[in-house]
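// run 5 | inverse folding | seed 20
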């Protein structure tokens, strides 16, 4: 064990009500919006191959020309209630919204810089109305904040000279001021989602970041902060030098999903996912594969089955509207969630052996086991191996109880679930298992082989 001042301050999961609420979300929405939505991956008629929100770093783009986009930010069609309504229909329980991305442009009228909406043609606060609109829909809000700030002249990638450290100390105060400002202006936010914390300059600030995290938690009891905010005094991030998770949940699953339960080490975690291969901000043309609703539903099921939340990203257009592809995916996901949401909300790892046909989710609310079926075997029957001594009492379809199933015990703690009619679904579907203790002595008389 290494003595640490600035490593993990808690072992294992948080067990308070605020974190239990976060753990139960299942499905979230990410929103990346800002100046980068205006060029949308195109500059002087040329397409930028990287992520649209990183276009300022492209050699073709002068930072000054990019920063002048502030004078073009005027989302006349921005209507936060319409975004919140789309999210509500989609069935998300929380939204993570960019307050300031790496480019330093603030979507709220921060007092600590001029580079905000207040000095754009739009003039008005964006974050406040968004928080209000989502709160009204009963959708919790998490504020995304990038520590790395390309616009701020005091930002440094590393600290090499005395001047660097004088400038970066100013930057640290600026960062603290903005974070306390956000928590004060938007007190209904449930957490902060940090990004832009990998450069050496910030990684060297273990003590400062640790005390800032403590200060924010005191200012906002119950605040939820992930593992990406700070490093320990040896520069270790996400997991400290003793391998313990820092922050309240693991924030390493960006555009990737854990394969098995041992990959998540008993921690809470979220997976943040783009619809195209790698675009967070609005990009005029999406290159490569665009995920379908069924693919996204399977990612959602897989995340919840492994104790995580699935957060799907939307990149609104510069005029404040959402693009058609995102609206239609939100609708398709929402239509599925309308029928199957009880298998997602309050979902956790069920402890069953993974089967090829899909995912098991246990509900902390109903104590039922849900089978989320994505792949029907050619045999037409669905195998279930229960944790030992657990018997299946009943199996029925969540979409309509009429679509019932018969469970056949084929071995100790092993069952076949037989659909009572040919399953020909066009969509993923859910079977509910009601289970119980195996009757004492009921071993099913299955002789184990001697080998
Ligand atoms: C290498 C890299 C750095 C930052 C990112 C940012 N994190 C995502 C959540 C987006 O904000 C993306 O711009 C992505 C890739």
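// decoded
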């Amino acid at each position: 064990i290494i003595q640490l001042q600035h490593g993990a301050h808690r072992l294992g999961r948080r067990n308070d009500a605020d974190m239990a609420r976060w753990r139960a979300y299942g499905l979230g929405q990410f929103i990346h919006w800002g100046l980068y939505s205006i060029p949308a991956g195109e500059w002087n008629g040329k397409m930028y191959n990287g992520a649209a929100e990183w276009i300022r770093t492209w050699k073709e783009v002068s930072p000054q020309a990019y920063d002048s986009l502030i004078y073009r930010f005027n989302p006349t069609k921005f209507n936060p209630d319409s975004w919140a309504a789309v999210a509500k229909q989609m069935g998300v329980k929380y939204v993570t919204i960019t307050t300031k991305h790496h480019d330093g442009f603030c979507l709220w009228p921060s007092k600590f810089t001029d580079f905000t909406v207040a000095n754009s043609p739009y003039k008005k606060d964006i974050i406040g109305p968004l928080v209000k609109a989502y709160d009204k829909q009963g959708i919790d809000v998490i504020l995304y904040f990038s520590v790395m700030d390309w616009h701020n002249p005091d930002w440094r990638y590393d600290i090499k000279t005395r001047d660097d450290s004088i400038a970066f100390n100013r930057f640290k105060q600026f960062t603290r001021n903005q974070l306390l400002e956000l928590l004060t202006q938007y007190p209904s936010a449930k957490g902060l989602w940090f990004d832009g914390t990998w450069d050496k300059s910030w990684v060297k600030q273990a003590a400062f970041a640790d005390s800032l995290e403590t200060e924010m938690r005191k200012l906002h009891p119950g605040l939820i902060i992930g593992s990406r905010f700070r490093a320990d005094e040896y520069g270790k991030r996400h997991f400290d030098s003793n391998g313990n998770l820092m922050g309240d949940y693991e924030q390493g699953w960006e555009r990737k999903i854990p394969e098995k339960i041992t990959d998540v080490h008993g921690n809470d975690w979220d997976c943040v996912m783009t619809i195209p291969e790698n675009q967070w901000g609005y990009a005029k043309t999406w290159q490569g594969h665009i995920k379908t609703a069924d693919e996204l539903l399977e990612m959602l099921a897989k995340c919840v089955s492994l104790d995580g939340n699935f957060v799907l990203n939307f990149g609104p257009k510069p005029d404040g509207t959402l693009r058609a592809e995102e609206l239609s995916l939100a609708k398709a996901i929402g239509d599925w969630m309308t029928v199957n949401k009880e298998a997602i909300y309050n979902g956790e790892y069920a402890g069953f052996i993974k089967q090829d046909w899909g995912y098991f989710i246990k509900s902390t609310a109903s104590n039922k086991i849900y089978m989320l079926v994505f792949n029907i075997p050619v045999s037409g029957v669905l195998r279930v191996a229960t944790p030992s001594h657990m018997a299946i009492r009943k199996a029925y379809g969540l979409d309509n109880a009429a679509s019932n199933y018969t469970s056949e015990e084929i071995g100790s703690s092993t069952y076949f679930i037989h659909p009572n009619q040919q399953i020909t679904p066009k969509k993923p579907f859910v079977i509910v298992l009601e289970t119980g203790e195996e009757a004492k002595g009921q071993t099913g008389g299955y002789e184990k082989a001697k080998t």
